[in-house]
Amino acid sequence: MAILPIVEVPDPRLRQISQPVEGVDDDLRRLIDDMFETMYAAPGIGLAAIQVGVPKRVLVIDLQEPEEEGGDPVRDPRVFVNPEIVAESDNEVPYNEGCLSVPDQYAEVDRPDRIRARWLDRDGVAHDEEIDGLLAVCLQHEMDHLNGILFIDHLSRLKREMLLKKLTKQRREQGKRAA
Ligand code: NI
To answer: What are the pLDDT digits (tens) for 100-133?
Structure first.
């Protein structure tokens, strides 16, 4: 397995539309393993293939939610190949989202609190399930990546520009420290 470099804004690859996977094979599983390793190392709870520069409709998610509050994170890796949302609730809830491609920036985004989704897992087995809670938020965020959409696109223009300015400033300061 390998930790892959994460593509960050304003890299135009993040705006690409990812292509459907034609078959779940060992090459794809290798990519999935690398995506998990990259996500855990970052650390993050979700990663789309395009975030490591691969324009395929593949996502990995691990909410790493502890079984009890304050407990150790428990790994719960989930793979979504060719995911589709087939239904969503009218009720939207806000969640303070971040993204490994927009490092250290967070903002509240409203999304449907419950969705029904279809996808294939790492063995190519089809799933059709209702999803809610943080997994629903995360899956919708990651699915946006497959269509070239970032969470900052859901913000007002003013908020988005402020957030990107903060990121630029932060990068400049990190560059100075490194120099
Ligand atoms: Ni993201």
So the answer is: 999 999 999 999 999 999 999 999 999 999 999 9
CA max distance for the chain: 51
Domain that holds residue 96: 12-178
Token pair 């999803």 in the structure block, residue: 131
DSSP 8-state code for residue 56? B
The DSSP call for residue 57 is S
pTM above 0.90, yes or no: yes
Residues in the chain: 179
Q: Which residues are catalytic?
A: 142
Residue with tokens 């890796």: 77
Residue at 128 is within a domain: yes
Cα within 13 Å of Cα(90), Cβ side: 0
Distance 46 CA to ligand 1 centre (A): 7
Q: Does residue 73 register a pLDDT over 90? A: no
**Which CATH number do you get for residue 126?**
3.90.45.10
Expressed in angstroms and rounded, the spacing between residue 151 Cα and the centre of ligand 1 is 7
The total domain count for the chain is 1
Ligand 1 centroid to residue 150 C-alpha, Å: 6
